[in-house]
Amino acid sequence: MNVKLLQFKNVTKNINENRVLTDITFEASSGQVIGLIGPNGAGKSTLLKVICNLLRPTSGEVLVNNVPLHKNFKDTSKKIGYLIEDPSLYPYLTTKEHLALCLQLQGNPINQHTINSITDALNITPFLNKKVKKLSMGMKQRVGIASAVIHNPEIVVLDEPTNSIDVKGINLVKQFILTLKKQGKLVIVSSHLLQEIQSICDQYLMIENGKLVNTEEINSPSTKSYRILVPYTTETNLFLKNYFSIKRTGNFLFFDISTESLNTTLNLLIKNNIHISDIEKLSLSLERFF
Q: Which CATH superfamily is domain 4-219 in?
């Protein structure tokens, strides 16, 4: 059973008299991966920093497990792990020393089993005894992710987690995020690589000019999911116009439908002897919401 972990209630943030976030309200639960999307300068990083108490809201309230975050941060901070922008690492420590320090800073004992389980999942175990300053940018990013989760937080915030990581590493990070979800954690991830967010997220928050927009449309289960292609005839064209928004391409007609209506649509076509030339599975293109 998913538990409500994070609540934003009418959160507004001003920086140097500029309004950066305006009346942000949403809820998020355990066992979810939420994608934060929006154009550059929209307020994504500011929102993430408010979640992590790196910035305090000008007005409104943030609750973690129904406890006000910014009034009880000593207790609630242990429930949050984050990687915001570039990872802040200690260059003269080894990877192992850095992760051990992260555990100690959260009041946890050094536990080699905990360190190994995370470094194995992110494939950085071979670099445990290497100084951070000698790691590649992609490997530093993985160490940053490991540092964010080493204390077993309930909420994990990852800002552009695949920065500087190669294709193989990106797939590994995505699998790691899904593992965190299976463990019941709430993961909030932002990225400019929209296809990557789409492949792992259960829900989306879109922010533009400091406001949440289009959230219901993006997350709607009725978003078109299949494209049906049938041969063009005058009779077929007239018939389908009564049911669908159809378009013509060459000698074919096509129309898009939701997953929920797929079986009903197929039965309708078969019943009326309309040949189906192709059925294409569509993926939601988040670019159209920008």
A: P-loop containing nucleotide triphosphate hydrolases (3.40.50.300)
